[in-house]
Write a structure and sequence with these properties.
Length: 339
């Protein structure tokens, strides 16, 4: 048994970042070298000082959709919806609150252009819904949907693009791959000019990433699946780096999940599909050599993944140090580079 409580730490509420730092790369960066044990406190823009010219950075280019909707029943009851995963053209897995009131056959109206019907019950309050609309669904969603900010962010986001990475391309995520939020176009250009290769992969962030662990024994936790893509060009670049002994640096836990899902030995294979990989200690990493990540919620699957990479005790030690040094936590918070 591996206890969920082994991954708990106490975080004062005032350490939860409510707004993004400007500019993006002005956020703080905690750097931990696993080999030397050295810990340094820098700004994110200094990350290039810890890179090597032959490093390969793997970024997740998924783009967040305006996945948060508000709807009403014919009786006037209000509902909040979070779109999680598109099943087909009109059907989505959707988190609905209050879930108990979203009965089978229930019709909900967002506006005159968009309505939906609950068609199936799934786990944890998730429902399968079928949308009816007039026009182009993506355009309507962009107009009436809201940024799906996590519930611990209470302040309004003035600029919707600040919950997107500057390299986001393909829409499909219900939450941002937050480690990438720190990069600016200028910093990325400097990294490329320095000699690092940047490889794009895709994982659409859904319920698996932020679903809480409810079981005491984390080995009994079941991850929901999330869609990913790894292209042939990306696979060749990653395999070449591994063959040459160059570092593969994952930008974010989502990139880690893709790389470790498609890894066999020290090779990856170009493919797409769904992954439900759950990484926790004492997982042995096949592909990832270094990790850039934010600071995550206590007892979450994300801190468990980081603990598998850095060691559980060391991860909690670094988190407590970050609290002491006034780092900002969670989605709009600061970053940690683990080498």
């Amino acid at each position: 048994m591996i206890s969920r409580q082994d991954f708990f730490y106490h975080l004062p509420e005032n350490k939860i970042a409510q707004t993004p730092i400007e500019p993006r790369d002005a956020s703080a960066l905690l750097v931990y070298n696993r080999e030397s044990g050295c810990v340094e406190h820098r700004q994110f823009k200094d990350i290039i000082e810890y890179l090597r010219p032959d490093d390969l950075l793997v970024i997740n280019t998924s783009r967040v959709i305006m996945a948060r909707l508000f709807a009403s029943s014919e009786q006037g009851r209000k509902f909040e919806l979070l779109l999680l995963r598109r099943v087909n053209t009109n059907c989505w897995e959707t988190l609905i609150r209050p879930a108990k009131k979203a009965k089978l056959g229930q019709k909900l109206t967002v506006n005159e252009q968009l309505s939906l019907t609950v068609t199936s019950y799934l786990e944890d309050g998730v429902r399968l819904v079928e949308f009816a609309y007039k026009g182009v669904f993506e355009n309507i969603l962009e107009q009436v949907g809201h940024v799906p900010l996590p519930p611990y962010i209470k302040e309004k986001l003035e600029n919707k693009e600040r919950y997107q990475t500057v390299y986001s391309l393909q829409e499909g995520s219900s939450a941002a791959p937050t480690a990438g939020l720190h990069f600016t176009p200028e910093l990325l250009a400097k990294i490329k000019e320095f000699g690092c290769k940047i490889v794009e992969i895709l994982l659409h962030v859904g319920t698996a990433t932020f679903r809480p662990v409810k079981v005491d024994d984390i080995t009994q936790h079941k991850m929901h699946s999330e869609y990913y893509e790894l292209s042939e060009d990306a696979a060749i670049a990653i395999n070449t780096a591994k063959e040459q002994g160059r570092r593969v640096i994952a930008v974010g836990t989502t990139s880690v999940r893709v790389l470790e899902s498609v890894g066999a030995g020290d090779k990856v294979k170009a493919q797409s599909g769904y992954t439900d990989i759950f990484i926790y200690p004492p997982y042995q990493f096949k592909i990832v050599d270094a990790l850039l990540t934010n600071f995550h919620l206590p007892e979450s699957t994300l801190i468990m993944l980081v603990s598998a990479f850095a060691g559980r005790g060391k991860t909690l030690e670094l988190y407590n140090l970050a609290i002491e040094k006034n780092y900002r936590f969670f989605s709009f918070g600061d970053a940690m580079l683990i080498l």
